[in-house]
Amino acid sequence: MHQKVSMKHYFLMGFLLMGLIPIAAQDNPELSLEAAYEQAERHYPLLENGALLQSISELNLALLNKEKLPTLSLNGVGQLQTENVHIGEPGSPINIAAPLETYKAYLEANFKLYDGGLVNAKKKMEEASVKVNQQGLKVSLRYLKDRINSLFFVIKLSREQQALLTTSINDITTNISYIQAGFDNGTVLESELSKLKVRKLELESEHIKLKGDIKAYFSVLNTLLGTAYPDSINLDLPETTLLGPDLEVSRPEQLLYQYQKEALMAQEKGIDATRSPKLSVFAQGGAGYPNPLNFSDISNSTYALGGVRLNWNVFDWGRAKQERQKIGIQTAQIDVDQKTFEFDIQSRAHEYTEKIAALYAQIDNDLQITALQKNILAQTKIQLQEGVINANDYLLQVNAELSARQKLQLHQVQLEQQQIEYLTLFGKL
User: Which residues contact 309 (CB under 8 A, 6 or more apart)?
Assistant: First the structure.
């Protein structure tokens, strides 16, 4: 019986542990920097333009397909003229006098047999145009990464500062208990105890302010992401192992420049298609007065005709040549823009590498200062408890040690931020 109870007990404990595992996982949710990028891009209103641009492009392509279909038009013309065809004299065997008023109404059908590749060229231009617009949209969204980077690191720094303040508050609290005991025994002045309490309250006030700042930063972040993350969520930053002097640039702007050149190439092919010969067939049928096809028939008559039409713009006064020159200049402008962009990237890269090197040197110096200030504070604490120094001397060292740790933490966060921004600059994030 005892064995059965034990087995039930083990099963019960197992189920409880299985239930606690996901709960524990949910207690410490994480938000990675890359996930924040994706959520911000999905939530940003500008992204809706992507679907609209695609819909417009599909409609334009559908309209271009209709240009290949036959056309049917209803036409009419009436006119009054001062003279018309007159053959023979009155009373002669042949006497034909066309009336001065004429009219005709007819249906005309046209079908393009060959358009010189004009419709296909227009399709290529439309496809190239939508690629440029869609890629331009991605370039516009990229600046969200800079905003999210700033929010991640200001939150990280505020949290680190909170932790430092907590350490100092706990240290002062410990010494308040020692001084309180001395005050109760009549060996310490009340002013000494009050100085420690005042400093503790000041640090707690700074801690409260940082807590409010973090809530405000998360409010901005949640607005960008379209979420409601708690301000206790862990922010996960990527590794910076890719950092190096030989990084290749992989930014959306580069693809935009390529698409812009492809769009200009499509326009250039469209120039050739515009000048190519066009061949079509047509048919016309209607009624007119007099007979539009037989001038000797002076009556209301029906008629029909059909044929082949050739259209070839042989001479265009050098317009095609000038349009090609214009496209060549525009292509050169894109090349200049791309070179300028890549130059700016490399220039900023040198700036980042210099700042990163300086921060490494600062952190090495900060570590030494912090270690020394920590040792001095430990000695000062003992001196305060033994009554060798007063509260002012102790608080001066508390402030000095706290300032040293804050500088170290600031420089460490700045270093990590510079590294992440460096990778973002090159398009690695």
Answer: 110, 279, 280, 281, 282
Of 409, 410, 32, 411, nearest to 239 by C-alpha is: 32
Provide the token pair at 174.
């410990």
Which are the contacts of 403, defined by CB distance < 8 A and separation ≥ 6? Answer: none
In this structure, the dihedral spanned by the alpha carbons of residues 399, 403, 409 and 412, taken in order and rounded to 10 degrees, is -160
C-beta of residue 64 within 8 angstroms of C-beta of residue 123:
yes
Tell me the CB-side half-sphere exposure of residue 200, using CA atoms within 13 A: 16
Cα–Cα distance for residue pair 172/201, rounded to 1 Å: 10
State pTM to two decimals.
0.79
pLDDT tens digits for range 118-170: 889 999 999 999 999 999 999 988 889 999 999 999 999 999 999 999 999 99
What is the Cα gyration radius of the chain? 42
Quickly count: other Cβ atoms within 10 Å of residue 181's Cβ: 12
CA distance 56 to 76: 36
Question: For 363-395, what is each residue's pLDDT tens digit?
Answer: 999 999 999 999 999 999 999 988 888 999 999
- For the chain, the residue count is 429
**How far apart are alpha carbons 253 and 250 in whole angstroms?**
8
2 to 8, 12, 15, 93: CA distances (angstroms): 10, 15, 20, 139
Q: Which amino acid is at 317?
A: W
pLDDT at position 244, please? Answer: 66
Give the separation between CA 152 and CA 218, rounded to whole angstroms. Answer: 9
Quote the CA–CA distance of 230 and 218 in Å, as a whole number.
Answer: 8
Taking 80 as the threshold, does the pLDDT of residue 27 lie above it?
A: no
Integer Cα distance of 34 and 31 in angstroms? 9
Give the residues across from 105 on adjacent strands.
76, 287
115 compared with 11, residue with greater pLDDT: 115
Mean per-residue pLDDT, 51-63: 89
Q: CA torsion, points 400, 356, 155, 27, in degrees to nearest 10?
A: -100
The rounded percent of the chain whose pLDDT value lies above 70 is: 91
Q: What share of the chain is helix, strand, coil (3-state, %, to 5)?
A: 65, 15, 20
Tokens of 198: 């005042």
